[in-house]
Design goal:
Layout (H helix, E strand, L loop, with lengths): L2 E9 L3 H8 L5 H4 L3 E9 L5 E10 L2 E10 L6 E9 L2 E13 L4 E12 L5 H28 L1
Antiparallel strand pairs: 1-7, 2-3, 3-4, 4-5, 5-6, 6-7
């Protein structure tokens, strides 16, 4: 059974800028603290990352996972599904970028559904999931806001 969580944050930038940073997968190792390496294995018809292979720090070790990205009719939404992973059975999620303050700010909604290969107590899984989401949102906010001011 997988666990899921949703968190939100406000970023001082437009939804388009947030979307641009979030879809520039090759740059993740530069600003996403747990991501060590990224390889775009397949691009979609619009030249965006389709299948993206990650190597990341997780629970005191390294993990590798392959995500397939989907871009729906709303260009400010990114969803992904796990294709394969060494520590995870499920790692599906979504970013949604909603304009606030007349488009000068963005509410970012991050949803994650995860299931690990190894059995762990529920509170440990929830703590890890919460850390993943909190770190992802905080790292994204710092990167986007820094790119807007530079």
């Amino acid at each position: 059974m997988s666990d899921h969580a949703t968190q939100r944050t406000i970023i001082d930038a437009s939804p388009e800028e947030c979307f641009r940073v979030a879809t520039d997968f090759a740059q993740y190792p530069q600003w996403a603290s747990d991501v060590k390496h990224v390889s775009i294995e397949r691009f979609d018809a619009d030249g965006r990352g389709g299948d993206v292979l990650y190597r990341a720090a997780a629970m005191g070790r390294s993990t590798t996972y392959l995500l397939r990205y989907y871009y729906g009719s709303n260009p400010l939404r990114i969803a992904w599904k796990l294709l394969e992973g060494d520590l995870t059975r499920k790692l599906d999620g979504e970013y949604e970028f909603l304009p606030v303050a007349d488009g000068q700010q963005t509410e970012v909604v991050y949803h994650l559904e995860a299931d690990l290969v190894m059995p762990l107590p529920g509170f440990v899984k929830r703590r890890a999931e919460s850390r993943i989401i909190r770190t992802a949102l905080e790292d994204l906010r710092k990167k986007v806001e820094a790119s807007v001011t530079s």
